[in-house]
Specification:
6 copies of one chain form a homohexamer. Chain A is of the alpha/beta class. The first copy, chain A, has 8 helices and 5 strands. The first copy, chain A, has helices at residues 12-19, 44-58, 76-79, 92-109, 124-141, 159-166, 180-189, 234-256; strands at residues 25-30, 63-64, 113-118, 147-152, 211-213. The first copy, chain A, has a 4-stranded parallel sheet with strand order 2-1-3-4, sandwiched between helices. In chain A, strand 1 (25-30), helix 2 (44-58) and strand 2 (63-64) form a beta-alpha-beta unit. In chain A, helix 2 packs across helix 8 and helix 4 packs across helix 5 (124-141). The two termini of chain A are 15 Å apart. Chains in contact: A-B, A-C, A-E, A-F, B-C, B-D, B-F, C-D, C-E, D-E, D-F, E-F. Chains A and F meet through helix 1 and helix 4 of A and helix 1 and helix 4 of F.
Chain lengths: 258, 258, 258, 258, 258, 258
């Protein structure tokens, strides 16, 4: 398939024709501007889900809406925390209302299926809240909303793949921030934006199981990498990317009948 | 220690005296009204953190504020979902603003340390957002807010205890809803509210790794129990309860200097 | 009747069955955490309506939802004002949205009749606003909301009872804060929480008919009692309690057909 | 004094000079658009406080800001309820934010004293909430807000005057809506807008002590007059008006040092 | 036609009868309290649209609602900016919600046509946003909203009239603030409020095409007049007023079938 | 200069170093997803300001933040209106809060100068409102916000250039939507996204000077082009682009000292 799939680049008539097809799907990547260590760009959490969505769209007829580039606040345990310069976050309520607005518009367009593909863990619960509220909005409007999916792309990773790639050394997802999985993915999709030479070796962060305000910044590595990214390769990145895109495609097919 | 530790039952002068002590701590349990299967009461997620907070307070000089009884929406994967009758939830924004209001008031009182002890997983991220915003509020007021902690009590469970109690059969937390851990705890703290005889055996739910709106209710067991609660005992409950209370007490001591 | 009537303690299936009965009624006590002098606990305004609702429910088949423990700001003339330590209040908008959320949920459950029983005078107008907005919400949802009642329990007191108990010395309601009526009621329902020995005699506050910001705190008695509570007895409390519960029950029967 | 006292009619330089005087006072009338029976205009609740404020300003050097013409919803017991055509109300939150905005602006101007004079009973609690929030806003801005007063003009009526005018037949304030007091006042200040010939005699409304949604409209007289206005005269109106203006002036002098 | 057309002065039954007529129209003037130089009153932007609406209503059977007296913030380029004392503005969101509330009420009344006549350029986009949201609200309520118009009165000025009055020297609208057009209009409708003797001659402001925060106040004339008002006459004012009223009347007739 | 200037692609340490330089500038393009006729892509209003910002940044050391891709509702007169499929808009309040959040974050980072470059006319007033509120936020936080600029790029077009390119046939800006200026610009910067062959000739729209809800869609050309785009060339586009970028650069230099 060679048709344009990025909504940004389509004119309105093409868009209208595309979404009027049986079982049209619109994918919305939701990322962040967040420190990702010295070796990854601030937009890492946007670039990854955008690449995943575009890959799925290219092969399925789905469309990709412009990425929501700014995401919810970074928490110490997931993203190093909000004290880093460069991390540029929005309030949860801002993210929520942005998504509600989009659902209302896609509903007006007649979009039948809508998937939010999250690249930043802290967005997750707020995207879910937004989908609940968007459904309520639609009910109040007397409108037929799209069927909606929300997913953090990393959720598609299977134990089998983890075992294959890491043997038994895979950290938990929170600590994965700017770690081997993200870095490998970026080496696969945007190698020119990764600077492996800047990495320094340090062990994983040891953070308590609770959150504190203010939190102890000394527990967060000064470079913002919660776990080591050493060992990242584009080959490993391709394995992850393939798993995420094929699993997302399968889920879209299963849920949206594509 | 035999002093009253429930703020509800204290008069304002006693409260004032107590929080003016060095390193006073106020604990706020945050629960929900949510279906918990046929065997547990709707307030399970409030009763457990309230009991934990009261136990810690009784032995430490901390105070316990009135429980926030209503919590965020139930998600299919954590609590069975919002289609159950009896589940009585508030919007995330309502929970957030309630907490911001409380922090502002405790700040005015001069409370030095404040801990939100969450009993309902879906509250977690919204409590965190609220703490962030409360800190911002305090900054805008030019006020000195309490040091704050937020924690889901289950986070204190160690692998060692899991192994001890379950061997290798412990499900993930999400599926734990109304399962062995919660039921055992309730058998320990409120046995009169647990009806083990109503339990029917069925395997764990098999839910996808993504969320859907609307979701397929047929994937959720009709009784609301995401995993089996069979095998729950008050003895196991006591082990959990002891771990949670001792770990929370230790954390309070470590962070708040008590 | 011996059935459980507290929603908190019921499981969801029992709750569902109970509210599906003809003319089910749910009662929601709405209180406050507010200074009530040296002799009454901070939760006085929650404890009283909770006791009233539970009494009515025990004898009528109505259900009692978890109390809203935190209420609107204390005004100088009704509750001594917001400068007292211990008074822990929420913004009017927080109270309003909390109630709207509850009405939406009870509507979803199919609750047919809903009564908000207010224990804190300052909540009154905000509860009313919330009911108006909840009705609008329901209209927007295309839902059939419960019939709703809102009442400050003290409104049920008759001149006849006042004359009986006080002869001609009853103060106006605003000044009643922590006074003879509330204190007597508490002596009847929670005597262990009342400390009559801490009372000091002083005349009623003399406050202007207007409100000021900032207000003159010297006009408010330092102990927070706007009028004397001396003369309170549990016998008088029983008279009040009986009047409130029987009048509320009568009103519920008249309006909700029970 | 013959100076212009209506802010609307002043140019900005005159306004600036006036409020820079020692102990400047700005009065803000807050009314409503609400049915007032067949004999009084919809703006009655705006016209009365505006006339009171202008009278006080004319004799004291205070300024009068443009009246807030739209007020909070009409309740059945105070104003007949929201089912009347012509009653044009705003949400409580709209009234509150409007007032907060004004306080912020008057603070910026350097206004030292600010009084909200309410003509519509249902506005009362929301004006109070707004003043609380405005004070918080000012604190957050690091600004010095005006000293503020809020008062319903009717609060200044004394028992002595009631006895003088009515002997013992004065109804309670709520039922006063479009009754003898308001009608007499309007006969005094805007006789051309009063149509006494349209009045029909009917007794006072008998409304329950609680509020219902939906409420029984048959309990409200079809003409919107909650109590009789027969017996209203401009002479009685002048007595009321004189009492309100002299008491308000005295209060302004006492609190604001004028 | 001699009937009362100001809603403020009508009783509710007359209002009800009037809006039930075929093709009733309600006009809502929306102004501001904003500096208008040394020669014009702060309410200029309210007085002009009010006069225009009243003129149209007097001759057409339309009704005029109470003016919204407070408007959106003054921008440097349109109104001199928010640093002037006396300019008393509300947040855009406050203006928007006020208008949404009014539309909801007029919808309830059964008003069929509603026109917002704006006298303050900065209100324009917020009035438009409000109308969009009001339409959405009505859809959610399942209500039939009025047909709505929003217009800045100055938009009706034709090049022909400009040429007639000014030859080729008419400035752009933004710079017109407190200039010849507004001043001439005020000389026509409220000559007693205009003080031509206070005018000083200075050329037009030279402001950049972009906005800055903070902005350079030295670019704004200290008297608040963005362009000269010298040359204003009541005769010119009458020409403008006639054009605005006749064009608005024509538009109302065309769009609302009057 | 060859340094990376897109914040998305920079790591946090580079970003931190760049904004710590004297007089750092961050540019934020604000666009829309809006129909732009059959010949231009939906993201036209984002692509143009992004290209302008990137050009300026490349030559000046400024940084470019991720574009805000979704903008305020399309009005009939500026963008054809909200009835077109594909136009995907957000509420004004959503745009405003998004910008406030960004300013707060850039303030935290220590950004000294911030410019919002608007590509969608309907965003203009809401961006201005946001800047006002962001300044207030900063004041409340006790923070030093960046100096801020907001500008619609088209404002930089001079009459001289219009005369040069169009002689006397240039339409007003509103009608310019998807017209010669935008189309020429797109032919210069993204020729592969422009489809000149789809253009059909039709005269300019004739729209009234007021807005209506609902509006008459038949007044809007069915293809969404408010004025002809025939005559667009990349050469003309380059002239426009050069003027906009050089004028913006000059303004940044003048205001921000670069």
């Amino acid at each position: 398939m060679d048709e344009e799939f990025r909504i940004a680049n389509m004119n309105w008539m093409s868009y209208r024709d595309r979404i009027s097809r049986t079982e049209s799907v619109v994918l919305v990547p939701i990322g962040s501007v967040e420190q990702h260590g010295p070796h990854l760009p601030l937009a890492t959490d946007s670039l990854i889900p955008t690449a995943i969505c575009e890959h799925c769209a290219r092969h399925s007829g789905a469309l990709v809406a412009p990425t929501l580039s700014y995401g919810a606040r970074s928490t110490p345990r997931c993203g190093g925390g909000q004290h880093f310069c460069g991390t540029t976050s929005i309030d949860a309520s801002t993210l929520i209302i942005q998504i509600r607005d989009l659902v209302r518009e896609f509903t007006r367009h007649g979009v039948k299926n809508l998937a939010f593909v999250v690249g930043h863990m802290e967005n997750t619960w707020f995207v879910n809240e937004a989908c609940e509220l968007a459904l309520r909005d639609a009910k109040m409007m007397g409108a037929e909303p799209p069927r909606m999916m929300a997913v953090g792309y990393w959720e598609f990773l299977t134990q089998k793949t983890i075992d294959h790639v890491f043997a038994d050394k895979f950290p938990n997802w929170a600590l994965e921030h700017a770690g081997i999985m993200e870095t490998s993915m970026m080496l696969h999709i945007h190698p020119e934006l990764v600077h492996m030479d800047t990495l320094i070796e340090h062990g994983p962060s040891r953070l308590p199981v609770y959150d504190m305000w203010p939190y102890d910044q000394s527990l967060i590595p000064a470079d913002g990498v919660l776990n080591t990214a050493i060992g990242s390769t584009s080959e490993r990145g391709k394995i992850f990317f393939d798993e995420f895109t094929s699993s997302l495609s399968a889920a879209l097919g299963r849920e949206f009948g594509r």
